[in-house]
Amino acid sequence: MRRRLLQSLVPMVVVLAIIAAVPLANYIATGQSRTLFLSRSNDADWFATMAESPLQSGDIATLRELAVRYHELYATPVFVVDVDRRVIATSRSGVDVKEPDLKVALDSTLAGRLPAEPAALWPWRSGEMVVARPVVNNGRVLGAAVLRVPTEKARDQVERGLLLLLGGLLISIGAVVVGIVRPVTRWVLRPLNDLDNATHQVTRGALDTRVSTDGRAPELRRLGDSFNSMALSLHQARQREREFVADASHQLRTPLTSARIHIEGLSRLSPTARFALSDIDRLGRIVQRLSRLAGSDRPGDIESSNEAPLDLAQAVKERLVGWKAVYAADDLELVIGEMVPGGVAPELEVDDILDVLLDNASKYGAPPVEVSVVRDGTEVVLSVRDHGLGLGSRDLKKVGERFWRSAHHREMPGTGLGLAIVRSEAARVGGRVVARPPVGGGLVIEVRVPLIDDYED
């Protein structure tokens, strides 16, 4: 926006400067021409006075000598003609009185009128200036004294003046742009910059950000009010989301605690109950993570632990034992790909992550579902791929957002929290979640977590 505004204002400043400079340039050229014309007009008047007697007596030797000396001194040719336009005396030979500029000057002078001032001396033009004065005796025109004035030096002075004017013009334009246009541009765009900064703050999670609308133009005031209303709606929606997750996790704690007490009693009598007790513990950890998810917009740092690194490949293989049976019962194909050992933070809840990914792949994707663990530089990558319809480029950017669901899957059961929990769990140990379309179609969800350097296979 600032660039566009500058692109509009700077040409306007340049055009105004050019409009102001044109009369100044014309003044410089015209002034130099007038100065030269007036100085040589005095000389032409003197020659006209000196030629009055020779034109009457016919003794032109002295007049010719004066013309030659003047030519040598000022490098300006001089000649005198009678009323019939015959050259009587000249400082150089070869004068052609029929030349257009000489003819016009002589027509006016021999008619008893002073010729008009010559045109402005522009550097790109050439030629001599003609200065003519009538030789008059008792009101009768006897002839004319004519000077062919060189204009090279005068044009050089005009050129230097125009260059100085151009330099001053450029400096003025720069000063106006820096001193006026840019501050005005900043002042005009300040409300939009404030709105842009507020938008970035909201993007970073500061939903209580608001913009001031006092003293703004009506259009900007309406825009600011709309932004504040939007930010308030987002803030309220986030509050409701947090309250929902917090209430749900709180409501789940009591029945889970009660169920665990009862199952602990049964676990002494039935080995099967011990597996149920393990699932109850997993549910308890899920509730705790939901509470953390509701309490913070940014994932926390990795919790300090003295436990040994966890072999991600081994943990995945152990969890896949149960999922093979689940997939087989639903006639779905589960393919176990490459399993490269790699140590990760022991706090990573591999079972929860894999459960979400495999559950999503079975519900929203299509078989076969491929699971692999590989190393990629300083990361260990858990990858789950299905061969379903996949997601569009816009949807891929939203994977992992809370309560978000693809338009193709909104009619299917689910809460839209699964991948959000996976992303939060990965971020808790410094990892990330990447969704991408693989070659051949489908969808790949990668959970990338840091590799612990001191881990030994």
UniProtKB/TrEMBL annotation:
UniProt main location, coarse: membrane
EC number: 2.7.13.3
Pfam families: HAMP (PF00672), HATPase_c (PF02518), HisKA (PF00512)
Catalytic activity: ATP + protein L-histidine = ADP + protein N-phospho-L-histidine
Alphabetized UniProt keyword annotations: ATP-binding, Cell membrane, Hydrolase, Kinase, Magnesium, Manganese, Membrane, Nucleotide-binding, Phosphoprotein, Protein phosphatase, Stress response, Transferase, Transmembrane, Transmembrane helix, Two-component regulatory system, Virulence
Stretches assigned to the Histidine kinase domain: 247-453
Annotated compartments: Cell membrane
Domain HAMP positions: 186-239
GO cellular component terms, A-Z: plasma membrane
Cited SMART domains: HAMP, HATPase_c, HisKA
Keyword Cytoplasm: no
SUPFAM superfamilies in UniProt: ATPase domain of HSP90 chaperone/DNA topoisomerase II/histidine kinase, HAMP domain-like, Homodimeric domain of signal transducing histidine kinase
GO molecular function, one term: ATP binding
Domain of life: Bacteria
Cofactors that this protein relies on: Mn(2+); Mg(2+)
Protein name: Signal transduction histidine-protein kinase/phosphatase MprB
